[in-house]
Amino acid sequence: MAARKTTKQTNASAEELKAYYKDMLLIRRFEEKAGQLYGMGLIGGFCHLYIGQEAVVVGLEAAAEEGDKRITSYRDHGHMLACGMDPNGVMAELTGREGGYSKGKGGSMHMFSKEKHFYGGHGIVAAQVPLGAGLAFADKYKDNGRVSFTYFGDGAANQGQVYETFNMAALWGLPCIFVIENNQYAMGTSQQRSTSSAEIYERGLAFGIKGEAVDGMDVLAVKAAGETAVAHCRAGKGPYILEIKTYRYRGHSMSDPAKYRTREEVQKMRDERDPIEQVRELLLTGKHATEDDLKAIDKDIKAVVNASAEFAKNSPEPALEELWTDIYA
Amino acid sequence: MATEILMPALSPTMEEGTLAKWLVKEGDTVKSGDIMAEIETDKATMEFEATDEGVIGKILIAEGTEGVKVNVAIAILVEDGESVDDIAAPAPVAAAPAPAAAAPVTEAPAAPQVDETPDWPEGTKLKQQTVREALRDGMSEEMRANDDVFLMGEEVAEYQGAYKISQGMLDEFGSRRVIDTPITEHGFAGIATGAAFGGLRPIVEFMTFNFAMQAIDHIINSAAKTLYMSGGQMGAPMVFRGPNGAAARVGAQHSQDYAAWYMQVPGLKVAMPYSASDAKGLMKTAIRDDNPVIFLENEILYGQSFDVPDIDDYTVPFGKARIWRTGTDVTIVSFGIGMKYALEAADKLAEDGISAEVIDLRTLRPMDAPAIIKSVMKTNRCVTVEEGWPQGSVGSYISSVIMQEAFDYLDAPVINCTGKDVPMPYAANLERHALITTDEVIAAVKQVTYK
Ligand SMILES: Cc1ncc(C[n+]2csc(CCOP(=O)(O)OP(=O)(O)O)c2C)c(N)n1
Ligand SMILES: [Mg+2]
């Protein structure tokens, strides 16, 4: 495992720290609001919240450059907000309205933005892994110096297509960062009950793919690891694996009775490891911000999130003609 | 400001639930993430978390209450120092707008418009080519014209193609554009689809379509559905191609015809050429198409020669059937290798004085239904011919279209000639019986013409 930068050796300026704080808080508040709208029946079907995992996408986006691509699973709201997609468009997609990123036709699990190089939003566990390598294939073919962040879960890491992809990505030297968001559970199945190896990233060794485990509750550690991975890919050295150890606070989806773990386990994580609290402390102890500054940030974010909820409630349902459009280009 | 805490929907199907237990009491302070209550749904007992900060001002629904409807206020949250009495009358809960009426069913056209222009003008210079050569020429011409087009698959490059379709292409285009893959259908179909999302135009060769079953998730869930799921933002302009259907004596796992499977999927286009000119012209159209195209070839046809127009940039549009033979007594509809039996049967039927019109659909999605309907309106009888299995066949779909759009014109039930409803046997005699035969087509025509 590469030497991990801890929050004690800060690799970010005060301004950067504040930006990560804001980005993570936006995701948290947005997800809380989504949970609320779900409870009110305004969001239907599956809805997978990202609460607890915010440092993963925010840390990696801090290492990305314009034009880099990203693709993930159904647990995708955080990725979209972190790469700069509009909260209004994301929330309105959750409510299935015309103003949503997919005009209401995709839903929580299926959103895309060509402009922000966000390639979805995929509902079949691990399908995004070869798709992400394919994005990297296109970049290599065009020789444009871009990298692709391909996110998937600890559960997804047991699908065969992941290893088919590792093989080809290594064989062809694709500029692809495989990001395993190890939140320790695949629905109700813990990693120990599903996965033969304790360190999933080590599976890459069999294909000659370098990788490392990263503390996913520490946004600065994630950023540092992201920078290593990006540099590796941009130097033409092929793919890289980041196994980011994180934790989801909420249920798998909205209808998860959560009997597979104790309330204490979740509470301990929240109390001791919360990624937002960690940065908050850094900001306060480093005197980069006062309590009042942070309150003001919180207030601004709440306003953005509330506005997105209003937008998502007021945007009309898609016109019936939309049923028949976008089937063929 | 005081806010109401509403009974949440905790699953996609929940309409009401039991408020099993309160874990907070009036006067307690809660913050986002604290568990406030246990709620029993139709499926399980779930914990209900607070999403806002505040003090529980009043509990409105006592624990143990059953049948609490979703969105009913169950408690009131106040800010520190605020009293419950400050709350105004509860505002009605905003419900999702009611779904509007279903889309109207489109009506069948009375007299179908059919494009019957010939594929090439009278007097065009023709050359004899095999289907194999025609496919290669179609791909190579498009690769010369557009650098975004590339070919990938097992043995396509150095080996020159398992069935020699890509013969010479590695030499011409190099290993950047003609790419040997490991044996990993699921993986490379996914990578190719991702490359298409990323702006390239891949041609994926499956050594045969039997192996594409390993990849069908990417073909359908990733390639065919993304344009729709993204509200039109991005799709997969690509071709999945390779031999489909029975070869000869290769047994059950190597002999399936997938025409009916892929034809069912919105978002895919499906081409299944019979002749060499169609193989070339449809291939060029498929590569230029901005949608995922399933291109079903046939090993037995690869070596057969046909006239191919000797002109620059010969293309065949999708959704336009070809009438190989005009006739008045019966319409025989087929595609791919089924055309061989259809045409042989028509020749023999002519000797018996029965005049068959033979239609080659060429593409199954889009399907040129107007060409079928127009012909059936003339002949009043129809027989379909395909190699695939009977249940849920292409022919059964055609029968339903004819029944809905030309019922009054039919003088006999439509007969579907198909492969037998069995896995393909290996024994030579059994395999012959399992496949569709020219004699069966002749018998079906005689049955519908009451001859
Ligand atoms: C191929 C497939 N199998 C099963 C499912 C149902 N399913 C959805 S999410 C999930 C668990 C995945 O866990 P993980 O990869 O760890 O991701 P996380 O939800 O923790 O982010 C399962 C089994 C599916 N969507 N696709
Ligand atoms: Mg997981």
Characterize this entry briefly.
The complex is a heterodimer of chains A (329) and B (451). With 329 residues, chain A is of the alpha/beta class.
Distance between the termini of chain B: 87 Å
Calculate the terminal CA-CA distance of chain A, rounded to whole Å.
46 Å
Gross CATH architecture of chain A? 3-Layer(aba) Sandwich
**The CATH top-level class label of the largest domain in chain B:** Alpha Beta
- Going across the biggest sheet of chain B, name each strand in turn: 11-10-12-13-15-14-20
Oligomer: heterodimer
Biggest interface, CB < 8 A: A-B, 76 and 68 residues
> CATH homologous superfamily of the largest domain in chain B, by name?
Thiamin diphosphate (ThDP)-binding fold, Pyr/PP domains
Largest sheet of chain A: 6 strands, parallel
Assign an overall shape of chain A. Answer: globular
Largest sheet of chain B: 7 strands, mixed
Question: What is the CATH-assigned architecture of the largest domain in chain B?
Answer: 3-Layer(aba) Sandwich
Share of helical residues of chain A: 40-55%
The percent range for strand residues of chain A is 5-15%
- How many β strands of chain A by DSSP? 8
Describe this structure in words.
The complex is a heterodimer of chains A (329) and B (451). In chain A, 58% of the residues are buried. Chain A is 43% helix and 12% strand. The radius of gyration of chain A is 19 Å and the shape is globular. With 329 residues, chain A is an alpha/beta fold. A 6-stranded parallel sheet of chain A has the order 2-1-3-4-8-7, with helices on both faces. Chain A has a two-stranded antiparallel ribbon with strand order 5-6. Chain A contains 11 helices and 8 strands. Chain B has 451 residues and is of the alpha/beta class. Chain B has 3 domains: 3-84, RNA polymerase II/Efflux pump adaptor protein, barrel-sandwich hybrid domain (OB fold (Dihydrolipoamide Acetyltransferase, E2P)), CATH 2.40.50; 126-309, 3-Layer(aba) Sandwich (Rossmann fold); 322-448, Rossmann fold, CATH 3.40.50.920. Helices cover 27% and strands 23% of the residues of chain B. In chain B, the strands form 5 sheets. A 7-stranded mixed sheet of chain B has the order 11-10-12-13-15-14-20, sandwiched between helices. Chain B has a 5-stranded mixed sheet with strand order 17-19-18-21-22, sandwiched between helices. Classes of the chains: A alpha/beta (329), B alpha/beta (451). Chains A and B meet through helix 1, strand 2, helix 5 and helix 6 of A and strand 5, helix 3, helix 4 and helix 5 of B. Bound molecules: thiamine diphosphate and magnesium ion (MG). Residues 153-155, 183, 185-186 of chain A line the site of magnesium ion (MG). Residues 73, 75, 123-125, 153-156, 183, 185-187, 252 of chain A line the site of thiamine diphosphate (TPP).
